[in-house]
Each structure stands twice: as structure tokens, then as C-alpha cells.
Specification:
Layout (H helix, E strand, L loop, with lengths): L10 H6 L2 H17 L4 H5 L2 H4 L1 H16 L3 H22 L5 H22 L5 H17 L9 H14 L5 H14 L1 H14 L2 H4 L10 H13 L4 H6 L6 H6 L5
Helix pairs in contact: 2-7, 2-11, 5-6, 7-8, 10-11
Length: 254
């Protein structure tokens, strides 16, 4: 019998098996990617600015393949991600900074926790450790250096990264312009509202997200509708109609 990369009863499966939680995770990631000092690497191939939503679902596919697969398949998916990055480095003739790899791993841990707590409930200390442990295993398989040894050390390093590795640049402005172009004006406003109530303060203060979080009562209504299984309209409202099937697919693993 094959061993799973993530146990069936893991909180990580619960978090990543819910479409709305995954969409919130990548709303947060979209904000932080735009500010990362190494965002030029995401621009190098041109794929991110050309199709930011497509890149979102591609990243989701890899993440869920890792989380919901048997161990060997998950390790193969991680190795594929590593090979893709190595190929980009070879083409550019430079190496992606170690801290940039850690940043992406760290933000996936952070937004997994923050998104679930915003939409569901507070996580226990043990559950947060579990989220850290699973993603740290991904980093170890990718042979990343300088990884934290436990959740407490991760929190310290995460805070340091947020202070040291973020900057508002021309890439930030352009990426937000692309978000608006691909989402449309109304969904773009919704994206920024989600980011306003989700992202850590160092991210928030560098972005033009506004200061009035009118989406909070809407979110409370959404939670009520979800109890009656009639939240689909709001969930689909987050992304253009062309992505409806992909949104449904986010929950296909549960």
C-alpha cells in the first residue's frame, strides 16, 4: 500500500481541499509576489504578467498534486518544480536567491493559516506546526538551504523576511495593473478587499489597498450562506466565468 505525502486526517488537506480557502491563499500570495524584491524572476519568462490567473491555477495544481498525492507522486511533482526553476536559472545565467525560495515557502505556510482562520476557525498550535512541517518537507525535497527547524523559528524568520525582502517597485505597479486587466474592475476591488483583511501589516502598508474593509460583513454573510450550501454565487464572483470549472476543480480532491 502506497504511503501518502500528507496524511488523510491532516489539517493541511482540510485547508487545501476548500476552494474558497485556496482562493484566499492566492489572494494573499498575489499581494506579496508583487512586492517581493525578487519578483523580476517571475517576470523573466513573461508568463506571470501575461496570464496571472492562469499562473494561479497552475500553481494550485502543483500544490494540490503534492498535498493530495501518494508520496512518490508528490516527490516527483516537487522535483518537477525544482527542475523548472533550474531551467529558468540556466536560461538567465543566474541563480534565484535562496531567500526568494524561502519567501515563497513561508508565504504559503502563512496564508494557509491566515486564510483558514479567516474563513473557518482558529488553528491550534499543533495544527500550525503541522502546516509548517508539511511545507518544510517540500522545501527539504527542493534542497533549499537555511530552512527553520520548527514553527517557532519559522515565525521569527517570516517576520524578518517581511521586513527585509519587500519593496514597492515598478513591477508592483505593473502586476496590479495586470490583475485589474484580467479580473475586471469589480473583481479587482474584491481582490484588494480580501487582501486588506488578510495580509500582514508590512505587506498592507506598501500596497494601495485602502483602509475601509467593507467586505467584513459580506464575509460574515458568506459564512452563513455556506452553512446552507448556497454560497456558490459568491465563490464564482471572485473570478471570471471562464474559470468556473477550475474553481469547482479546487474541491475535487476532498
Amino acid at each position: 500500500m502506497e504511503t501518502l505525502f500528507v496524511n488523510k486526517d491532516s489539517i493541511v488537506r482540510t485547508i487545501w481541499g476548500k476552494a474558497d480557502t485556496v482562493l484566499f491563499i492566492f489572494a494573499g500570495a498575489a499581494a506579496e509576489f508583487a512586492l517581493n524584491k525578487a519578483v523580476d524572476w517571475l517576470y523573466y519568462t513573461g508568463r506571470l504578467p501575461a496570464d496571472p490567473l492562469g499562473r494561479l491555477f497552475s500553481t494550485v495544481a502543483y500544490s494540490q498534486q503534492i498535498i493530495f498525492s501518494e508520496k512518490e507522486a508528490a516527490l516527483h511533482a516537487i522535483d518537477q518544480i525544482t527542475a523548472i526553476h533550474k531551467g529558468v536559472e540556466k536560461n538567465r545565467g543566474a541563480q534565484i536567491p535562496d531567500w526568494a525560495y524561502r519567501d515563497v515557502l513561508f508565504l504559503l505556510i502563512d496564508y494557509s493559516i491566515l486564510s483558514f482562520e479567516l474563513l473557518e476557525r482558529k488553528l491550534t498550535g499543533a495544527e500550525k506546526e503541522e502546516v509548517f512541517r508539511i511545507f518544510n518537507r517540500v522545501g527539504i525535497q527542493m534542497q533549499l538551504i537555511g530552512l527553520p527547524s520548527d514553527y517557532k523559528e519559522y515565525c521569527t524568520m517570516r517576520a524578518e523576511h517581511l521586513q527585509q525582502n519587500l519593496i514597492r517597485s515598478d513591477f508592483t505597479i505593473d502586476l496590479y495593473r495586470q490583475y485589474k486587466k484580467h479580473l475586471g474592475a469589480i473583481r479587482y476591488v474584491i481582490l484588494k478587499q480580501v487582501q486588506l483583511i488578510l495580509v500582514p501589516h508590512p505587506v498592507k502598508k506598501l500596497l494601495p489597498l485602502g483602509s475601509i474593509a467593507w467586505i467584513k460583513p459580506v464575509l460574515q454573510l458568506y459564512k452563513v450562506l455556506r452553512l446552507f450550501k448556497i454560497e456558490g454565487f459568491f465563490k464564482n464572483a471572485l473570478l471570471p466565468n471562464v474559470y468556473k470549472e477550475q474553481i469547482k476543480g479546487l474541491e475535487a480532491k476532498t
